[in-house]
Every structure is written in structure tokens, then in C-alpha cells.
Amino acid sequence: MVDITSKPVGRIAGGLLRLLMVLIVMASTSQAFAHAALIKTDPADGVVLAQAPTQFSLTFSEPVSPLVLTLVKPDGTPVALTSFRLGEQTLEIDNPQTLKSGTHVLSWRVISADGHPVGGSLLFSIGAPTEPPAVPEAVDWPLRLSIWIGKVLLYIGLFLGVGGAFALAWLAGNGAAGRRFVTAAILCGLVAAPLSLGFQGLDALGAPLSHLAQPVIWRTGLGTAFGWSVLAALTALGIGLLSLAGPRVLARPLALASLLGVGLALAASGHASVAEPQWLTRPLVFVHGIGIAFWAGALVPLGLALKRQTAGAAAFLRRFSRAILPVVAVLAAAGIGLAVIQVQTPSALAGTAYGRLLLGKLALLVFLFTLAAVNRWKLTASAEAGATEVRRRLTRSIGVEMLIVLAIFGVAAGWRFTPPPRALAIAAAQPASVHIHALEAMADLSITPGHAGPVAASMIIMTGDFGPLDAKEVTLVLSKPDSGIEPLKRAATKPGDGSWRVDNLIIPVPGRWMVRIDILVSDFKMVKIEAPVDIRP
Amino acid sequence: MNKYLLAAGAILALGTNAAFAHITLETQEAEVGSTYKAVLRVPHGCDGKATTAVRVQIPEGVIAVKPMPKPGWTLQAKKGKYDKSYQLYGQAVTDGVKEVDWSGGNLPDEFYDEFVFRAMLTADLPVGQKLYFPVVQECGDAVDRWIAIPMTGQDEDALENPAPGIKLTPKK
User: Which residue on chain A is closest to B163 by alpha carbon?
Assistant: First the structure.
């Protein structure tokens, strides 16, 4: 192995470990924010209904598929809801039983397109509100840690294992230094990949670690986008192993195929791959992954070759240092492209858990690039010439690089738990919606964006039995009695698409607002309908 | 100092009194099965603008409407079908005046006027309840609609633009 026992290296390793812990803690403070954001529910969160609804509906910002749907009764007994229909973005759930009066909780857990599960719950009361039943929604730390470790080990398998196999086949010449390490890394990935799939299944269903053996967990994990990643990873790892153990003639093509497999595995799921525009993000993730594998994978075989002073070491170093500049350039360009797409605004860097992880990764990268640059421009030439002392320093430096690379894997695996600012921005832009239903008229009102500040309101007005209602005038009245805010009254205009609009409306403070819609049905008849709507901060 | 306080108090009192400046009916109670003389009192225009039209909707159960003409105003009585048939002096009546319009006039905000019609309150009207005559007041482009009718249990005083109404009493 690379020499990491010398004191300065040990100190650096300790520092890195501490930094990593801090980053993980920072990342964990983020709650389960949605990638698929919940836009609308029926019944609305917090409403008091006269009668039990026959069905529930949840509308999301993007297509989802349900994993677990539970109705918790006022006495705390959970009822699994198994009968549902999936519309475009709306999930309609049948309510199988008559509900007694009191406050109920509808708890939902769905999976969005990026393969990450999202959950939440909504409260509604029948008759009158009661003390809401307790719903456990705590973070399952052992599972989170398992997912994280699984992810780091998978990265080790893909980047150090497959990348190492590629370096051995294409760069190392006849040298075999690091062969055992690379094989071990691939085996480690081969174990971690299926385990990660199981953890993903557990996370998707909100089940604890003890349920890992249940087949449904594995089926669910395989059904998510992450399932494709694992299949691609297993294939890449298998081919990588073949390139090490198989016939020498095939080593190079197999190693190349395996390296491409790493890119595919990474591009198949995750935050970055599902970001729009996908024609750009998926190739960027692919290229980024291959670049990492090329660079990180070569480090251990190269370090060991230099340390052992093998015959081919100088040639290995020369080939590596010639190839690494363009590889790193492409790797960095792809990384910057993805970061810009995901973070969007500089303020999100410090303001979100995702951004903080990115800052941590950047800090590690600066360190890594400095070391790599010193290696490349100061040490490589003399080491190639055969200076023993320089080679020793180069070996040690490569050891430190290895540690930083591992720390970066750790940080990158932490992204599994943090929604990118891009997704947060989409969620923030979602409208606040309410469906107001009265005997004589009803309205679908959406306020966009659904947070305090300048907004626009759009209303669809219908008769009480879903028929068309050709109103003469529509007026929107917003009030917030508990904040002492007098009603804001705005006449709506008709843009001509059947809706009514109020533009240039400013909602001064977040919280629960009362919305009244005054509908002038005829000259002498006005219908006023009213409902609360929650405006986000 | 006290003077200012008094002045402030007076302004506040006036402010709350603004709610009394609705369009109302002079006689607030009437017997069912009798003739009612409705006098609509218009105390002001719409937000300071002169009133140019007053239109009143005749509720179901009110028949044989005869509006009083006003000099300077064009009078129109719009007829339509009733929901059901009523007896008037032994004859079945199925249609009649449903809306009365006085238009084309000019009543400045600082003046007061009254608009009058006579009608028969049929005996089937629910005794003890209120009967509303929704009014639309037009002032050129501006409109004030005195058409709000309280829902059961709702306080009439809480309405912004209540429709003028009368209480129905039993026939003596």
C-alpha cells in the first residue's frame, strides 16, 4: 500500500476526516425537501371537513410513483392505503373506510424521477380538530449512514477499482504494482453495489435496516432509477475484473468498456442526471465520471510502482502525466457545468446544504489540484529521470492525494441527502393553490409563486356542480385578520383563456391568509366564497 | 389638545357611520297579502360621483309592481315570468315586472333623493323573515351594488353592501 504512516500525512488524514464529519453534519440539517414538490392536496392541509372524503388527491410538480401511503386515525392507528390511481402528476387515493370525527394524518412517500424518495404528510379533520396523532417522521440515522457508506464503497469500486484496472491495462505497461489493491477495490464495489440497492429500497419504503432481507425491499430498490445505476455498475465492475484476470490481449478493450460503464452507471440516476436540460447533464455526468476514474484510478498503481521502483515506473509516470492535463481539463469543465446548472445562484452556495457540500468539495479540490500541480511540474521531471529522493516525495504526495480523493468521495456521497438548489428553486416557485367549493359556485385559485412578495393570482370559476359559470365580474379579496392586515381587494381581469387573473399583487407577509372570491353571477347576484390559503415565506 | 382629541373622535365616529349611508327602504316592515309602498332612499353617489341610474330587482312573490315616474329620469319596467302563479283579485298572474330602472338622471353626491314604487306582497311570502330588494346604483362608469343578502346566521351589519330589505309581518 501507499505509505500513509508518516506523521504529516497522518495529521492531514485526521484533518480531512474531521472536515468530512463537519460536512456530513451540515448536510444532514436539511429536511426531506422535495425534488418532486407537492403542489396541491385535496383535502387541503389543515382543513376541517363535515364528512369523510371518499378519496384523497395529491398533485406534484413532476410525475411520481407512490411507495407508501398511510392514513393515521385520530387514535394513532395507521391504515395502509393500497387503492390508488396515478394520473399525469396527480395521485388519486381511495379512502376505503368511513372515518370517525377528529384529526387524521395522510402520510405519503413517493419516488420522483431522479430516483430519490420524497415524503410528507397532511392533516385534515372531520367534524372538529383534535390533537393530531403522532406520526414518526424522524431521520433513520443508521440507514442514512449505511446508504452513505454503501455509496462511498461503490465509488471506491468504480473509480479506484475500474479506474485502476484501466490504468493497469493502458498506462502501466508490463508493471503489475497495485494489481491486488485494484482487485480488492473492484470486489468492494461488487459487494457495495447490490447492498446499496437494498438500502435504496429501505429508504424508498421508509423501512428500518432490519427489513433488509425482505424481497419487496429489493424489488422496490430495483424499480427506482438507482436500479439502473446498480446494474450498470455491476456490469462495469465485472468487466473490470475480467480485464485484470482475463487474457492479456483482451485486457485493454475490456478495461475501456469497463471505464465507459462507470460513466453510464453514474449518468443513470442522481440529482445531476435528471437536471434539465438532460441532453447536456447526462453527458456531463458521464464525462465527469470517466475523468474521475481515469485520474483517481491511476493514483494507487502509480504510487506503488514508484515506491517499489519497478522497471516500468518511469514510463508509467510519463504516460500518466502526459494524459492527465486534458483529462483534468474536461473533468473540471464538466464539473463546473453541472455545478452551475444545479446551484444556479451564488447565494445558494452558502445558503443550502447542497451548496455547502459543494464548497467543501471545492476546498478539497483546491488542495488536490495544488498537490497535483506540484507533482506534475516540480517532481515529475526529476522522478522520470530517476532521482530516488524525489520519487519518495512523489510517492508520499500521491498518498495524500489518495486521501483527499477519498474525502471527496465522502462529500459527493453526501449529496444523496441534499436536494440541489435547482430543485429547491423549482419548489419555491410552485404556486399556492386552493380549491374553494360552495353550493352556488366554486373556484380553483393558484397564487404564483406561492410565497410572500409580488405574485399573480389565477382563478378558474365554475358553478357548484362543475358547470361553466360566465361571471360578470370577479374580485379577489385577501385578508389576514391575525396580522391586522385589512383586506386587499383587486378586481380580476379576463385574459381570454377562461380564467380570471389578478396581476401585480403583493402579498406582504407569509402565513395563513383568508381568500375571498366575489363572483358577480348576474347584475343583482353576487356569490362570495372563502377559504384559507397558506403562503410560504 | 382636548379639541384635537374630540375632532379625532368625531372623525372616527363619522368613519364608522359611513356604513349607515346605504341605500335603504323607508318603511322597514310590511304585512304579507297587502300593498306596500316602497321608498328607496339614495343618500349619496358612488364614491363621490353623481348617481345616473338606480335599478331595483323585484323579488319572487312581489307582484303588481307600479313604479312612480320621476322628472328627469327615464323609467323602465322590465317584465318576465314568475316562478309560480299568484292570485290577484281572483285572477291567476304568471308574469309581471321583475326589474325597475330609473336611468338617464343626474343626482349629485351632495343631494338626496327617493325612488318610489308600489307593489303587492303576496300572502305566500314567509312571515317573520326578511325580503330583500337588491339595488344597483350606477354613477356613469362607477357602480355600487347593494345586493348582498346575509346567509342564515350571518349578521347583516357585517355586510359591505347590503341589499335593502323589509321584515314581513303577518296579515292582520
Answer: A524
C-alpha cell, B109 = 353626491
Q: Mutating which of A516, A521, A524 best tests the B interface, going by the most B Cβ atoms within 10 A?
A: A524
CATH of B21-169, one of 3.40.50.300, 2.60.40.2230, 2.60.120.10, 1.10.10.60: 2.60.40.2230
pTM of this structure: 0.63
List beta partners, residue B47. none
Q: Which residues contact A294 (CB under 8 A, 6 or more apart)?
A: A163, A166, A167, A259, A323, A324, A327
Phi, psi of A343 (to 5 degrees): -90, -35
The helix (H) or strand (E) run that includes residue A84 is strand A84-86
Q: What is the DSSP string of A455-485?
A: EEEEEEEEETTS-B---SEEEEEEEEGGGTE
CA–CA distance, A516 with A500 (Å, rounded to integer): 14
Q: pLDDT exceeding 90 applies to what percent of chain A?
A: 29
Residue A79: its H or E element: strand A78-80
Pair A222, A321 in one domain: yes
Provide residues of B within 8 Å CB-CB of chain A: 55, 57, 134, 136, 145, 147-148
Task: Give the three-state DSSP class for B39.
Answer: strand
Q: Show the cell assigned to B167.
A: 321584515
User: What ipTM was assigned to the predicted interfaces of this complex?
Assistant: 0.76
Do A179 and A281 lie in one domain? The reply is: yes
Average pLDDT over residues B105-114: 93
Predicted pLDDT at A346:
85
Q: What are the cell numbers at A52?
A: 369523510
Q: Do A526 and B145 touch (CB under 8 A)?
A: yes
- CA–CA min distance A526, chain B (Å): 7
Give the number of A-B residue pairs with CB atoms closer than 8 Å: 16
Higher pLDDT, A155 or A204: A155
Residues in A closer than 8 angstroms to B148, CB to CB, are: 526, 528
CA A312, A188, A406, A357 torsion-angle sign: positive
Q: Which residues of chain A make contact with B134, given a CB cutoff of 8 A?
A: 524-525
Do A159 and A179 belong together in one domain? yes
- Residues 176 through 205 of chain A touching chain B, CB cutoff 8 Å: none
Give the closest-approach CA distance of A528 to chain B in angstroms.
9
Q: How many domains does chain A have?
A: 3
- Distance of residue B162 Cα from the nearest chain A Cα, in angstroms: 11
A524 touches chain B (CB under 8 A): yes
Is A520 near chain B, with CB under 8 Å?
yes
